[in-house]
């Protein structure tokens, strides 16, 4: 197939940088436009990023000399593009406005930002869990008055460490869970050079994160109805979120109770056998094994498991009975791959596969 031409909004930040690396040699997508704040306009990408390249892999040669456009100059940015990824770093109101403006300019927007996650007709999707929620795009297009343009978002990076397990265990009806997430510093767009006070430190607060961790899974696991997306009301989550001195990888410790009482073996089997539409359609960024279960007591560990399936798979271990709840376990996901840019690329592939993004 002829490659779709794509741009990155917010290309100079950490998630934008990750998008740039993931789109190098992508079989379906060709990166042809980089956009960022006005201060980057007219500079090459290499000049605009300067010494703020935050990834542990080098900047792709293909983007170094690409001239950065002003993200607010929509007419210039949209020229020749089929869709855009959004990773802009702005105030919520500004993100809401600019993503909707791009959608109204007939460009599909696949967003990594949280601003539109609770807009009623904007789908918030983990492609393996709830791709049917994309059907609400038709309602959004009617509201926006567009034929092609729309906004689709992916959920918060930290919920990827445990929400897939709840999806795999749907038949056993999980109804309450207590969760603690131990989140990497790259989730804040930082590395140890730019955040040296995190070395040997833990911060027991991440602004807005606990509410996202408690509420967003209920929308992802919810049901598409004639009125919209109904939240999964029969699941209650209590969360605490902690920043830890790890570069990449969000870990979650979870205790969960079920209405139908499964055995440990049934739960492990459900994890290992769980797959979604990305696996069935063999999408380019889809992990072959979405969830791996590890038997060792010291797994999953960040050093050994964060890059499972090129960072797109979920690792779970230490499943055992709990004295207060039914079971407890530990989950791990890569926050800038599965949780951010990689999840965005997989979402775009799913939207192309389902016919929402076209050449």
Automatic annotation (TrEMBL):
SUPFAM superfamilies attached to this UniProt entry: Glyceraldehyde-3-phosphate dehydrogenase-like, C-terminal domain, NAD(P)-binding Rossmann-fold domains
EC number: 1.2.1.11
GO MF entries: aspartate-semialdehyde dehydrogenase activity; NAD binding; NADP binding; protein dimerization activity
SMART domains, per the entry: Semialdhyde_dh (SM00859)
Enzyme class: oxidoreductase
Alphabetized UniProt keyword annotations: Amino-acid biosynthesis, Methionine biosynthesis, NADP, Oxidoreductase, Threonine biosynthesis
Pathway given in the UniProt record: Amino-acid biosynthesis; L-methionine biosynthesis via de novo pathway; L-homoserine from L-aspartate: step 2/3; Amino-acid biosynthesis; L-threonine biosynthesis; L-threonine from L-aspartate: step 2/5
PROSITE patterns: ASD
GO biological process: lysine biosynthetic process via diaminopimelate; methionine biosynthetic process; threonine biosynthetic process
Active-site residues per Swiss-Prot or TrEMBL entry: 157 (acyl-thioester intermediate), 250 (proton acceptor)
Domain Semialdehyde dehydrogenase NAD-binding: 5-137
Source taxon at top rank: Bacteria
Coiled coil: none
Family indicated by similarity: Belongs to the aspartate-semialdehyde dehydrogenase family.
NCBIfam families: asd_EA, PRK08664.1
PANTHER family: ASPARTATE-SEMIALDEHYDE DEHYDROGENASE
Name used for this protein in its record: aspartate-semialdehyde dehydrogenase
Organism name: Oribacterium parvum ACB1
């Amino acid at each position: 197939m002829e490659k779709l031409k794509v741009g990155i909004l917010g290309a100079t930040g950490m998630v934008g940088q990750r998008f740039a690396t993931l789109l190098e040699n992508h079989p379906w997508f060709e990166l042809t436009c980089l956009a960022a704040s006005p201060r980057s306009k007219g500079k090459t990408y290499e000049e605009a990023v300067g010494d703020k390249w935050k990834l542990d892999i080098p900047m792709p040669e293909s983007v170094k000399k690409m001239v950065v456009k002003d993200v607010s100059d929509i007419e210039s940015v949209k020229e020749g593009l089929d869709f855009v990824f959004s990773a802009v770093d702005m105030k919520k109101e500004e993100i809401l406005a600019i993503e909707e403006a791009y959608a109204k300019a007939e460009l599909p927007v696949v967003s990594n930002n949280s601003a539109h996650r609770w807009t009623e007709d904007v789908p918030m999707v983990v492609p393996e869990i709830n791709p049917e929620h994309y059907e609400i795009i038709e309602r959004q297009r009617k509201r926006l008055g567009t034929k092609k343009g729309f906004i689709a978002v992916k959920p918060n990076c930290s919920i990827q460490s445990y929400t897939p397990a709840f999806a795999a265990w749907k038949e056993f009806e999980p109804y309450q869970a207590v969760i603690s997430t131990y989140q990497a510093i790259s989730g804040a767009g930082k590395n140890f050079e730019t955040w040296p006070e995190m070395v040997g430190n833990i911060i027991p607060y991440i602004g807005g994160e606990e509410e996202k961790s408690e509420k967003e899974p209920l929308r992802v696991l919810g049901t598409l109805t004639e009125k919209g997306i109904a939240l999964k009301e029969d699941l209650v989550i209590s969360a605490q979120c902690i920043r830890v001195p790890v570069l990449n990888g969000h870990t979650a410790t979870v205790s969960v109770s079920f209405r139908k009482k499964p055995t440990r073996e049934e739960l492990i089997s459900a994890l290992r056998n769980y797959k979604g539409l990305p696996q069935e359609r063999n999408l380019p960024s889809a992990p072959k094994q979405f969830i791996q279960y590890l038997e060792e007591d010291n797994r999953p560990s960040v050093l050994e498991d964060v890059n499972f399936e090129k960072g797109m798979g979920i690792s779970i271990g230490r499943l055992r009975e709990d004295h207060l709840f039914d079971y407890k376990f530990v989950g791990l996901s890569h926050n800038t791959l599965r949780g951010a840019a990689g999840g965005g690329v997989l979402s775009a592939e799913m939207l192309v596969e389902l016919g929402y993004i076209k050449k």
